Amino acid sequence: MKAIRGATTVSCDSAEEIKEKVQELLSEITRQNCLEEQDIICIMFSNTLDLHAFYPAKAARECGFVNCALFSSLEPEIDGALKMCIRVMLLVEKDILPKHIYLNEAKNLRKDISKILNIAIDGPAGSGKSTVAKAIAKKLNILCLDTGAMYRACALKCVSCGVSVTDEGNVAKIIEDINLNVQYKDGAQITFLDEKDVSEDIRKPEISMLASTVSAISCVRTKMVELQREIANKNSCILDGRDIGTNVLPNATFKFYLTASCEERAKRRYNEYIQKGKNVDLDEIKRDIEKRDIQDMTRKIAPLKQADDAIYIDTSDMEINEVIDLIIKKIQEKI
Ligand code: DC
Q1: Atom of ligand 1 nearest to the CA of 239
Q2: Model confidence pLDDT, tens digit, residues 282-296
Q3: Of ligand 1's atoms, which has the minimum distance to the CA of residue 209?
Q4: Using CA positions, which residue lies closest to atom 9 of ligand 1?
Q5: Is the CB of 191 under 6 A from ligand 1?
Q6: At what angle do helices 262-275 and 282-298 cross, to 10 degrees?
Q7: What distance in Å separates the CA atoms of residue 13 and residue 87, rounded to the nearest whole number?
Protein backbone atom coordinates (compact mmCIF):
# COMPACT_ATOMS: atom_id res chain seq x y z
CA MET A 1 0.00 0.00 0.00
CA LYS A 2 1.26 3.52 -0.76
CA ALA A 3 0.27 6.95 0.53
CA ILE A 4 -0.01 9.94 -1.78
CA ARG A 5 -0.16 13.44 -0.35
CA GLY A 6 -1.52 16.59 -1.88
CA ALA A 7 -2.93 20.01 -1.09
CA THR A 8 -4.62 22.95 -2.71
CA THR A 9 -6.13 26.29 -1.71
CA VAL A 10 -9.37 28.17 -2.43
CA SER A 11 -10.28 31.84 -2.23
CA CYS A 12 -13.49 31.47 -0.17
CA ASP A 13 -15.56 28.93 1.71
CA SER A 14 -17.91 28.08 -1.15
CA ALA A 15 -19.08 24.55 -1.95
CA GLU A 16 -18.74 25.25 -5.71
CA GLU A 17 -15.17 26.51 -5.57
CA ILE A 18 -14.13 23.73 -3.19
CA LYS A 19 -15.63 21.18 -5.57
CA GLU A 20 -13.76 22.68 -8.51
CA LYS A 21 -10.40 22.75 -6.65
CA VAL A 22 -10.84 19.27 -5.12
CA GLN A 23 -11.68 17.89 -8.55
CA GLU A 24 -8.58 19.55 -10.02
CA LEU A 25 -6.42 18.13 -7.20
CA LEU A 26 -7.80 14.59 -7.36
CA SER A 27 -7.63 14.43 -11.13
CA GLU A 28 -3.96 15.58 -11.09
CA ILE A 29 -3.16 13.00 -8.41
CA THR A 30 -4.87 10.18 -10.32
CA ARG A 31 -3.40 11.27 -13.67
CA GLN A 32 0.17 11.71 -12.48
CA ASN A 33 0.11 8.47 -10.48
CA CYS A 34 -1.75 6.57 -13.24
CA LEU A 35 -4.49 5.49 -10.80
CA GLU A 36 -7.81 3.85 -11.54
CA GLU A 37 -10.63 4.35 -9.03
CA GLN A 38 -10.31 0.72 -7.86
CA ASP A 39 -6.65 1.37 -6.85
CA ILE A 40 -7.81 3.88 -4.23
CA ILE A 41 -8.58 2.44 -0.79
CA CYS A 42 -9.47 5.70 0.93
CA ILE A 43 -9.20 9.45 0.61
CA MET A 44 -8.65 11.52 3.75
CA PHE A 45 -9.09 15.27 3.75
CA SER A 46 -8.20 17.84 6.32
CA ASN A 47 -8.81 21.53 5.92
CA THR A 48 -8.12 24.75 7.76
CA LEU A 49 -10.76 26.06 10.18
CA ASP A 50 -11.84 28.79 7.74
CA LEU A 51 -13.42 26.11 5.46
CA HIS A 52 -16.34 23.78 6.06
CA ALA A 53 -14.98 20.24 6.63
CA PHE A 54 -17.96 18.66 4.89
CA TYR A 55 -17.26 20.20 1.46
CA PRO A 56 -14.07 18.40 0.32
CA ALA A 57 -15.43 14.88 0.96
CA LYS A 58 -18.78 15.84 -0.58
CA ALA A 59 -16.91 17.19 -3.61
CA ALA A 60 -14.95 13.93 -3.96
CA ARG A 61 -18.18 11.90 -3.98
CA GLU A 62 -19.74 14.26 -6.52
CA CYS A 63 -16.62 13.96 -8.70
CA GLY A 64 -17.16 10.21 -9.00
CA PHE A 65 -15.08 8.75 -6.17
CA VAL A 66 -17.98 6.62 -5.02
CA ASN A 67 -16.39 3.32 -3.97
CA CYS A 68 -13.49 4.32 -1.74
CA ALA A 69 -13.81 5.31 1.90
CA LEU A 70 -13.81 9.06 2.54
CA PHE A 71 -12.87 10.92 5.68
CA SER A 72 -12.54 14.60 6.47
CA SER A 73 -11.39 16.59 9.47
CA LEU A 74 -10.55 20.09 10.61
CA GLU A 75 -7.00 21.17 11.35
CA PRO A 76 -6.14 23.13 14.48
CA GLU A 77 -5.43 26.84 14.03
CA ILE A 78 -1.69 27.35 13.61
CA ASP A 79 -0.22 30.85 13.67
CA GLY A 80 1.13 31.94 10.29
CA ALA A 81 -0.09 28.77 8.51
CA LEU A 82 -1.48 28.90 4.98
CA LYS A 83 -5.17 29.90 4.99
CA MET A 84 -8.07 28.26 3.11
CA CYS A 85 -6.06 25.16 2.53
CA ILE A 86 -7.33 21.63 1.81
CA ARG A 87 -4.90 18.77 2.38
CA VAL A 88 -5.47 15.25 1.16
CA MET A 89 -3.96 11.80 1.63
CA LEU A 90 -4.85 8.86 -0.60
CA LEU A 91 -4.04 5.30 0.42
CA VAL A 92 -3.63 3.23 -2.74
CA GLU A 93 -3.11 -0.41 -3.56
CA LYS A 94 -0.53 0.04 -6.32
CA ASP A 95 3.22 -0.45 -6.50
CA ILE A 96 4.29 3.03 -7.54
CA LEU A 97 6.71 5.69 -6.47
CA PRO A 98 4.07 8.17 -5.24
CA LYS A 99 3.91 11.55 -6.89
CA HIS A 100 2.61 14.08 -4.37
CA ILE A 101 0.72 17.01 -5.84
CA TYR A 102 0.56 20.55 -4.51
CA LEU A 103 -1.53 23.09 -6.40
CA ASN A 104 -2.30 26.80 -6.24
CA GLU A 105 -0.95 28.54 -3.10
CA ALA A 106 -0.19 25.12 -1.58
CA LYS A 107 2.73 24.80 -4.02
CA ASN A 108 4.69 26.87 -1.50
CA LEU A 109 4.25 24.15 1.12
CA ARG A 110 6.48 21.74 -0.77
CA LYS A 111 8.88 23.69 -2.98
CA ASP A 112 11.21 20.69 -2.79
CA ILE A 113 8.89 18.44 -4.80
CA SER A 114 7.88 21.09 -7.30
CA LYS A 115 11.50 20.73 -8.46
CA ILE A 116 12.37 19.21 -11.84
CA LEU A 117 13.93 15.75 -11.68
CA ASN A 118 16.58 14.91 -14.31
CA ILE A 119 18.03 11.41 -14.53
CA ALA A 120 21.02 10.67 -16.78
CA ILE A 121 21.63 7.15 -18.07
CA ASP A 122 24.73 6.70 -20.20
CA GLY A 123 26.38 3.66 -21.64
CA PRO A 124 27.39 1.87 -24.83
CA ALA A 125 25.04 0.24 -27.36
CA GLY A 126 23.19 -2.78 -25.98
CA SER A 127 23.90 -2.01 -22.32
CA GLY A 128 20.14 -1.98 -21.72
CA LYS A 129 19.94 1.76 -21.09
CA SER A 130 17.02 2.57 -23.37
CA THR A 131 14.83 -0.33 -22.11
CA VAL A 132 15.67 0.59 -18.54
CA ALA A 133 15.13 4.32 -19.13
CA LYS A 134 11.68 3.69 -20.65
CA ALA A 135 10.60 1.46 -17.76
CA ILE A 136 11.81 3.91 -15.12
CA ALA A 137 10.15 6.84 -16.86
CA LYS A 138 6.90 4.88 -16.81
CA LYS A 139 7.25 4.05 -13.11
CA LEU A 140 8.10 7.63 -12.16
CA ASN A 141 5.65 9.04 -14.66
CA ILE A 142 8.21 11.32 -16.27
CA LEU A 143 9.38 11.80 -19.88
CA CYS A 144 12.01 9.59 -21.42
CA LEU A 145 14.29 11.23 -23.98
CA ASP A 146 16.22 8.84 -26.20
CA THR A 147 19.04 11.14 -27.33
CA GLY A 148 20.51 8.47 -29.60
CA ALA A 149 17.34 8.77 -31.70
CA MET A 150 18.20 12.41 -32.34
CA TYR A 151 21.69 11.58 -33.70
CA ARG A 152 20.13 8.78 -35.72
CA ALA A 153 17.68 11.30 -37.23
CA CYS A 154 20.63 13.55 -38.16
CA ALA A 155 22.26 10.59 -39.95
CA LEU A 156 19.01 9.79 -41.74
CA LYS A 157 18.71 13.40 -42.89
CA CYS A 158 22.24 13.24 -44.37
CA VAL A 159 21.35 10.01 -46.19
CA SER A 160 18.15 11.48 -47.61
CA CYS A 161 20.06 14.59 -48.79
CA GLY A 162 22.79 12.46 -50.34
CA VAL A 163 25.45 13.99 -48.06
CA SER A 164 28.22 11.87 -46.57
CA VAL A 165 28.25 11.88 -42.75
CA THR A 166 31.98 12.66 -42.91
CA ASP A 167 31.51 15.74 -45.08
CA GLU A 168 31.56 18.26 -42.22
CA GLY A 169 30.88 21.33 -44.37
CA ASN A 170 27.71 19.97 -45.94
CA VAL A 171 26.57 18.25 -42.72
CA ALA A 172 26.83 21.66 -41.00
CA LYS A 173 24.53 23.22 -43.65
CA ILE A 174 21.95 20.46 -43.17
CA ILE A 175 22.04 20.57 -39.39
CA GLU A 176 21.69 24.34 -39.20
CA ASP A 177 18.04 24.20 -40.30
CA ILE A 178 17.18 20.63 -39.39
CA ASN A 179 13.47 20.21 -38.64
CA LEU A 180 13.76 17.64 -35.87
CA ASN A 181 11.49 17.20 -32.90
CA VAL A 182 10.25 14.59 -30.51
CA GLN A 183 6.73 14.04 -29.27
CA TYR A 184 5.23 11.58 -26.82
CA LYS A 185 2.29 9.23 -27.32
CA ASP A 186 1.25 7.11 -24.32
CA GLY A 187 4.71 7.80 -22.88
CA ALA A 188 6.54 6.53 -25.99
CA GLN A 189 8.87 8.84 -27.91
CA ILE A 190 8.07 9.52 -31.55
CA THR A 191 10.88 11.13 -33.54
CA PHE A 192 9.85 13.49 -36.32
CA LEU A 193 12.11 14.63 -39.13
CA ASP A 194 10.64 17.20 -41.53
CA GLU A 195 7.23 16.51 -39.89
CA LYS A 196 7.50 12.78 -40.78
CA ASP A 197 7.52 10.03 -38.15
CA VAL A 198 10.94 8.38 -38.64
CA SER A 199 10.92 6.30 -35.43
CA GLU A 200 11.20 3.04 -37.42
CA ASP A 201 13.59 4.23 -40.16
CA ILE A 202 16.21 5.43 -37.68
CA ARG A 203 16.44 1.92 -36.15
CA LYS A 204 17.83 0.34 -39.31
CA PRO A 205 21.21 -1.32 -38.57
CA GLU A 206 23.00 0.75 -41.24
CA ILE A 207 21.92 3.97 -39.50
CA SER A 208 23.66 3.01 -36.22
CA MET A 209 27.20 3.46 -37.53
CA LEU A 210 26.29 6.58 -39.51
CA ALA A 211 24.77 8.09 -36.32
CA SER A 212 27.96 7.39 -34.42
CA THR A 213 30.04 9.07 -37.16
CA VAL A 214 27.82 12.12 -37.53
CA SER A 215 27.62 12.54 -33.73
CA ALA A 216 31.36 13.26 -33.63
CA ILE A 217 30.88 16.50 -35.61
CA SER A 218 30.96 19.57 -33.39
CA CYS A 219 28.01 21.51 -34.87
CA VAL A 220 25.81 18.40 -34.72
CA ARG A 221 26.52 17.96 -31.02
CA THR A 222 26.00 21.64 -30.25
CA LYS A 223 22.57 21.60 -31.91
CA MET A 224 21.42 18.31 -30.34
CA VAL A 225 22.64 19.22 -26.85
CA GLU A 226 20.76 22.52 -27.10
CA LEU A 227 17.52 20.67 -27.94
CA GLN A 228 18.11 18.11 -25.17
CA ARG A 229 18.74 20.79 -22.52
CA GLU A 230 15.63 22.69 -23.63
CA ILE A 231 13.49 19.59 -22.97
CA ALA A 232 15.26 18.68 -19.71
CA ASN A 233 14.97 22.21 -18.30
CA LYS A 234 11.21 22.23 -18.74
CA ASN A 235 10.30 18.65 -17.76
CA SER A 236 11.16 16.00 -15.24
CA CYS A 237 12.75 13.41 -17.48
CA ILE A 238 15.19 10.60 -17.91
CA LEU A 239 17.69 10.97 -20.75
CA ASP A 240 19.64 8.08 -22.16
CA GLY A 241 22.73 8.58 -24.25
CA ARG A 242 26.51 8.76 -24.18
CA ASP A 243 27.32 12.17 -22.70
CA ILE A 244 24.30 13.06 -20.57
CA GLY A 245 26.00 12.87 -17.17
CA THR A 246 29.31 14.29 -18.38
CA ASN A 247 28.17 17.04 -20.71
CA VAL A 248 24.44 17.60 -21.36
CA LEU A 249 23.32 17.66 -17.71
CA PRO A 250 26.37 17.78 -15.44
CA ASN A 251 24.01 18.69 -12.57
CA ALA A 252 21.49 15.90 -13.19
CA THR A 253 19.69 14.75 -10.03
CA PHE A 254 20.82 11.16 -10.63
CA LYS A 255 23.43 9.66 -12.93
CA PHE A 256 23.86 6.03 -13.92
CA TYR A 257 26.39 4.38 -16.21
CA LEU A 258 25.25 1.05 -17.64
CA THR A 259 27.49 -1.38 -19.41
CA ALA A 260 27.82 -5.09 -20.26
CA SER A 261 30.32 -7.33 -22.02
CA CYS A 262 30.54 -6.90 -25.78
CA GLU A 263 29.31 -10.52 -26.35
CA GLU A 264 26.24 -9.94 -24.20
CA ARG A 265 25.42 -6.62 -25.84
CA ALA A 266 25.76 -8.10 -29.33
CA LYS A 267 23.48 -10.99 -28.33
CA ARG A 268 20.84 -8.55 -27.04
CA ARG A 269 20.89 -6.53 -30.29
CA TYR A 270 20.78 -9.74 -32.33
CA ASN A 271 17.70 -10.97 -30.42
CA GLU A 272 15.99 -7.60 -30.85
CA TYR A 273 16.45 -7.74 -34.65
CA ILE A 274 15.40 -11.42 -34.84
CA GLN A 275 12.23 -10.65 -32.86
CA LYS A 276 11.42 -7.95 -35.39
CA GLY A 277 11.82 -10.56 -38.15
CA LYS A 278 15.10 -9.07 -39.47
CA ASN A 279 17.77 -11.29 -41.00
CA VAL A 280 21.03 -10.38 -39.24
CA ASP A 281 24.39 -11.95 -38.45
CA LEU A 282 25.60 -12.10 -34.83
CA ASP A 283 29.30 -11.71 -35.66
CA GLU A 284 28.60 -8.73 -37.86
CA ILE A 285 26.59 -7.08 -35.06
CA LYS A 286 29.43 -7.72 -32.62
CA ARG A 287 32.00 -6.20 -34.98
CA ASP A 288 29.71 -3.21 -35.50
CA ILE A 289 29.28 -2.68 -31.75
CA GLU A 290 33.04 -2.92 -31.12
CA LYS A 291 33.74 -0.40 -33.86
CA ARG A 292 31.03 1.94 -32.58
CA ASP A 293 32.32 1.66 -28.97
CA ILE A 294 35.79 2.75 -30.10
CA GLN A 295 34.40 5.59 -32.20
CA ASP A 296 32.06 6.85 -29.43
CA MET A 297 34.69 6.52 -26.69
CA THR A 298 37.58 8.13 -28.53
CA ARG A 299 35.96 11.06 -30.34
CA LYS A 300 37.29 14.49 -29.37
CA ILE A 301 34.01 16.08 -28.25
CA ALA A 302 32.02 14.64 -25.34
CA PRO A 303 33.18 11.03 -25.73
CA LEU A 304 31.30 8.21 -24.04
CA LYS A 305 32.61 7.81 -20.51
CA GLN A 306 31.33 7.39 -17.00
CA ALA A 307 30.76 10.65 -15.11
CA ASP A 308 32.75 10.73 -11.86
CA ASP A 309 29.55 10.90 -9.84
CA ALA A 310 27.58 8.29 -11.85
CA ILE A 311 26.58 4.93 -10.37
CA TYR A 312 28.23 2.15 -12.40
CA ILE A 313 26.11 -0.93 -13.19
CA ASP A 314 27.41 -3.93 -15.14
CA THR A 315 24.25 -5.53 -16.55
CA SER A 316 25.99 -8.56 -18.17
CA ASP A 317 24.57 -11.06 -15.68
CA MET A 318 21.44 -9.16 -14.72
CA GLU A 319 17.86 -9.52 -15.87
CA ILE A 320 16.41 -6.24 -17.08
CA ASN A 321 13.97 -6.14 -14.13
CA GLU A 322 16.86 -6.44 -11.68
CA VAL A 323 18.51 -3.40 -13.27
CA ILE A 324 15.25 -1.42 -13.11
CA ASP A 325 14.68 -2.36 -9.45
CA LEU A 326 18.23 -1.44 -8.53
CA ILE A 327 17.96 2.00 -10.14
CA ILE A 328 14.54 2.66 -8.58
CA LYS A 329 15.99 1.67 -5.18
CA LYS A 330 18.89 4.10 -5.61
CA ILE A 331 16.47 6.88 -6.55
CA GLN A 332 14.10 6.11 -3.67
CA GLU A 333 16.96 6.19 -1.20
CA LYS A 334 17.51 9.84 -2.03
CA ILE A 335 14.05 11.32 -2.70
O1 DC B 1 22.00 4.95 -28.34
P2 DC B 1 22.01 4.78 -29.89
O3 DC B 1 22.59 3.47 -30.32
O4 DC B 1 20.66 5.02 -30.46
O5 DC B 1 22.98 5.97 -30.42
C6 DC B 1 23.38 6.08 -31.77
C7 DC B 1 24.68 6.88 -31.84
O8 DC B 1 24.43 8.24 -31.47
C9 DC B 1 25.78 6.41 -30.91
O10 DC B 1 26.61 5.42 -31.48
C11 DC B 1 26.54 7.65 -30.59
C12 DC B 1 25.54 8.77 -30.75
N13 DC B 1 25.08 9.34 -29.49
C14 DC B 1 25.87 10.31 -28.93
O15 DC B 1 26.95 10.62 -29.44
N16 DC B 1 25.47 10.94 -27.80
C17 DC B 1 24.32 10.61 -27.21
N18 DC B 1 23.93 11.28 -26.12
C19 DC B 1 23.51 9.59 -27.75
C20 DC B 1 23.94 8.94 -28.88
Answers
A1: 18
A2: 999 999 999 999 999
A3: 10
A4: 212
A5: no
A6: 120
A7: 15
